[in-house]
Amino acid sequence: MVRVYVAVLSLLALVLMAGCKKIPPVSKAPSCDIKEELLVMCAEPVKRTGIAFGEALSDKTVNDNELQNCKTRHEFLVKSYNECRTVTEKHNEYINEFNKENADWMK
After folding, report:
1. Is 59 exposed, middle or buried (0-12, 13-18, 19+ CB in 10 A)?
2. Residues 92 and 29: beta-carbon distance below 8 Å
3. What does the radius of gyration of the chain's CA atoms come to, in whole angstroms?
4. What is the mean pLDDT of residues 46-66?
5. How far apart are CA 99 and CA 69, in angstroms?
6. Which among 91, 83, 80 has a CA at the least distance from the CA of 30?
7. Comparing 82 with 12, which gets the higher pLDDT?
8. Is the pTM of this model over 0.85?
9. Residue 35 in contact with residue 80, Cβ under 8 Å?
10. How far is CA 22 from the centre of its chain?
């Protein structure tokens, strides 16, 4: 009777082990590339000649506003890029550690 149990348990163990497969290593996060069009976000300043003083002041206001908007967009882009790099680096460190710890299970 004991031999039957041992045989059944051995057979069960073989079946379970046959179902185990190695898994591929976990891949790293993609880099934080910035699209080219995001780098060129600032409009050209208004440049007109032969205009009245009031029009020149108006143009200056438009240029100042556009420059401030450009500065805000640039600061946001830099902050987002830096946050992306920080999170990506932490994630990739975790992935590297995970892959090292589980190398026995991976191809």
Report:
1. middle
2. yes
3. 31
4. 90
5. 44
6. 91
7. 82
8. no
9. no
10. 27
Yes or no: say if 99 and 106 are a contact pair by the CB < 8 Å rule.
yes
Do residues 73 and 41 lie in contact, with contact meaning Cβ atoms separated by under 8 Å?
Answer: yes
DSSP secondary structure string for all residues of the chain: -HHHHHHHHHHHHHHHHHT---BPPPPPPPP----HHHH--PPPPP---S--HHHHHHHHHHHHHHHHHHHHHHHHHHHHHHHHHHHHHHHHHHHHHHHHHTGGGB-
Cα distances (Å, whole numbers) of residue 25 to 71, 92, 95, 96: 42, 12, 9, 9
Predicted local confidence at residue 13, as pLDDT: 59
- Amino acid identity of residue 104, one-letter, is D
More confident site: 63 or 4: 63
Which position has the token pair 């946001």?
A: 76
Q: Which two tokens stand for residue 84?
A: 């992306």
Among residues 74, 91, 79, 85, the alpha carbon closest in space to that of 31 is found at 85
